[in-house]
Amino acid sequence: MTVKEKEEQILRIKQASFQSELSEALQSQIRKRVVATVQAIIEEALVEEIKQDIEQLPCVARRSGYFSRILDTQYGRIDQLAVPKLRYGNKKRKWQILERYQRGVRGLIDTVGYLYTMGLSLRDLQEALYLLMGQVLSATAINNATLRVQTRMQADRDSQIDVTPPIIIVDGVWVDIQYTLDSIKIDRAGHQRQQRQAQERVLLVAMAVWPDQRYHILHYEVAHEECDDAWSTFFTNLLARGLHVFDNNKQCH
Question: What's the pTM?
Answer without folding.
Answer: 0.74
